[in-house]
Amino acid sequence: MASIQIRNIIKNCEHINESAFRIAQLSSTSQIRLENEQVRILHAYILNLQTAIEKKTKAKGGTPADLPNPSFRAYQWIRFLSQKKWLLIHLHALSEFVVMMHRIRLLKERHVHPDHIHLSIRNSSYLFRSQRKGKEFFIEINEGFVSAPKEIKEAIIRAALGDRKKTTGRMIRKYTKSAKYRQIMNDLKTVEQPNRLSAQGNLYDLQKLYARINAEYFQGALAQPRLIWSTRRSKRRFGMYDPESHTITINRILDSKKVPLIALEYILFHEMLHQKLGVVEQNGRRYAHTPAFKKAEGQFKGKPAADAAIRKLTQS
Predict the structure, then answer these.
(1) What digits encode the pLDDT tens for the residues 255-268?
(2) CA-to-CA dists, residue 221 to 185, 225, 227, 239, angstroms
(3) pTM for this predicted structure
(4) Strand order in the sheet with 136-142
(5) Which one, 192, 197, 245, 263, has least CB within 10 Å?
(6) Residues 111 and 255 both lie in one domain
(7) Is 138 exposed, middle or buried (0-12, 13-18, 19+ CB in 10 A)?
């Protein structure tokens, strides 16, 4: 079944970003408190937006997890910022970044004026990214860095401005393994209600298949992710696990009587292994299909039949 469509969620997030950046520009860190009228107005706006999204998805028989991926990530971020603790930390981080931008010498070398920098912190799939448009310079930073120490925040600004030193990149990547970073990312992706509608295909319900495979192969220990069918059919990629949004996407081409169930179960099992084992980093490179992964993959009952069905599907 298709995802639930709700208009203007992304646009509303841009309004949050703009309002938060104005607060950070006009207020010192000590002024960013819940008693601040601008902060109270922004918090009320976020709460109202969260409530509206939840009501609209419920009225359509689903949950926010049934939204398309971009809208769902936006909802995760809105829900995160609706918590007063995280909103204040978010605004304090923005304020720190604003102060840093006026001190970093690299700005002069890049001929960028601090007043022409537009900074946002959001639930991004990037650690950070930047783009220049004429005199204007746009920097987007992952929400996971809001509690980072000043030296990490400064390293991010330098890297976004073009400082590609290996030591700078290593420092930033190392921080992503810290407890503080992981806590924020876990809080961002935690959604109490699983998706209902977008997990139901024409033939198969991913929720039911996941529960059975979880019980049989993982002793029921895996945390319930968001399970969705892809919007498009493809013969190149049959499944994907996105740890940032805690989502497993299964190719809609597998939701067919022409495809043996064992193939669908195997693809889902494969993505559940990614969920369990994660990614291993060695010598600056990231590996998902490690020897441990391949060994665990071999434990799937009926793997030869599944492999044969998948080969046939790719060749047809």
Answers:
(1) 999 999 999 999 99
(2) 20, 12, 16, 21
(3) 0.81
(4) 117-122, 136-142, 128-133
(5) 192
(6) no
(7) middle
